[in-house]
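Changelog-linked ticket: thymidine-5'-triphosphate example.
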Amino acid sequence: MTTLYLASASPRRRELLAQIGVPFVTRVQPIDETPLPAEAPAAYVERLALAKAQAVFATLEDRHDAVVLGSDTAVVLDGRILGKPVDREDALATLAALSGREHQVLTAVALVNDIRAEARVVASTVRFKTLDRTQIEAYWATGEPRDKAGSYGIQGLAAVFVSQMQGSYSAVVGLPLCETAELLAQFAIPCWQQAASA
Ligand SMILES: Cc1cn([C@H]2C[C@H](O)[C@@H](COP(=O)(O)OP(=O)(O)OP(=O)(O)O)O2)c(=O)[nH]c1=O
């Protein structure tokens, strides 16, 4: 019996994976999230998703019956990776930069077991309406931007900033569920559909 491990401290990722009916155990290992010099954003999120999964896989005692899922999300504006805010000023500057513009959200999902590692990167486009300084400061004061790539969460109060979105909503929140289900199937882990017909 294979055990699926979610290599993530993110409550969003736990909720998203639970949403598609897959039983899993959460384990977290810290990794270095510094981008490499001139690393392309898609390569960066893919490398981190794999690194998160591999770091947890390395700690497991029974690696034969284990699959580990890692994921990483980055907000990209004009080719620049905007990660989680380091402080208030950083978040205010990020939200001002996103105001009235379109940006990309890249999320990678990776699965690792004792014989292989596979990853998928999903790109979505999000457009923000124009925000003024008062709205940005009020949003920071809610606490929501603190632990999120690009200093916002589409699933929360920042939904009112999003005038358009193309791509995968679940990927923007933190885990692309359609692609995750496809990868899980490749590793013989059923989500609700196969489980229901088994
Ligand atoms: C853009 C966006 C990001 N986010 C979150 C998802 C991720 O939790 C976070 C991006 O940071 P990540 O470094 O991808 O993930 P994490 O540190 O929160 O969790 P872990 O590495 O342990 O898996 O931003 C939202 O919740 N909503 C959004 O709309």
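Closing comment: Example verified and attached. The chain has a mean pLDDT of 96. DSSP finds seven helices and seven strands in the chain.
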